[in-house]
Predict the structure.
Amino acid sequence: MRKNLFLIATILGSLLLLAFVAPQWINKAAQKLHIPKVNISAPAFHLGLDLLGGTHLIYQADLSKVAGSAGDAMQGVRDVVERRVNLFGVSEPVVQISGTDRLIVDLAGIHDVNQAIQLIGQTPFLEFKTILPTAQGDAIIKQVLGAKAQGLTAAVLCAPANAATLNQFLLAFKVDPCYQSSGLNGSGLSTAQVSFNNQSLSPQVSLELNAQGAKLFGEITQANLGKTVAIYLDGLPISTPTVQSAITDGHAVISGNFTPDEAKTLVERLNSGALPVPIALVSQQTIGASLGQDSLARSLKAGVYGLIFVALFMILFYRLPGVISVIALLIYVLIVLSLYKLIPVTLTLAGIAGFILSLGMAVDANILIFARMKEELAGGKSLHVAMHEGFSRAWLSVRDSHVTTLIGAVVLYATTSSIVKGFALTLGIGVLTSLFTATMVTRTFLNLVATKWFERKQWLFR
């Protein structure tokens, strides 16, 4: 009964994984079998630049006018560019610093390259805004939404709880129903840095304004005591502090429930707008969608061929255990592909190479176990004892080989660029899953055939 329940659970679990990995196969099967109301949907795989097609851009920053840390300036620019690319709607963008003054941007699936280049190339724009009268905000909402407003008011849209909705509104209509320009922008801010409150020791952000900025900021704070003065970067609010007192000396503090990382991020964004770092496009490489699809098709074909040849080898050399290893390998593939969707993992050619390599690792674990089983059977031991000894004696080798590979994957992921990181990530996921399938799935299936009937037919095992 226990074995039957395991078989049923395995079949159902495999079907669920298959429905998640390739729902179109289940839907087509249901149509051919005339099963009504079967329309399974699941998230698609995240494809990288080399598979989906897109653009690879390299920018060079002019750091000659940066008085502070060049590294901090580049981090600020990277943060701003990443925010812009995300708002542009690019699928799984990669924005990373290369060297000391170069920024690499990978835009997978981008359609309007020129617009993306124009968007990225702009100098970060920082500005301070004051509260817009509610009546004017309501008028703006009614003007852009019309009947679709359905009772939406500025008071509702501008509430802190609706920050995400406000951002969507700002991006869609390019008008602000909550705040109006105060005339103070990034040119009036000298620098921003993380500091700590003397009493509570909580992190805060200290601002230092130049002479012109200090004068304007003093007028703004005097006129807005107890009100919010919002700080916008590239048209979106990044902080909305409340004015506690008039600040006329050019030194202001933004306090709140910041974590150190949140305070540091805000400082980087403020400095990226206050200290513009010009960036120039020095290289552009476009990968067509057709080329990406061809690469994907070739990669999948290589994976299928590899799986077939491995399956044939295992069945011919190890017979029944080989068949079991193929079943376990198929379950392994379904588990790994499901993890790629759940995490999600951005699949590139390098990532697919890591996946195919991990298939070999999964088979290697079974080979170590089956080889030991054959030795035990040749020594005259029973099938059940041979299986037990095969697993227990091969476990150390399986563990050590997987752990060393996993260490290599971790080192690669921690110290290399995004392309190699994709390889390391898929390899690491594959190795961990391989340990599970080799020690749990394969072993459980072998226990199913450890019966007297199979005991009399040891030619199936050696």
In short: The chain has two domains: 55-132+178-282, 288-460.
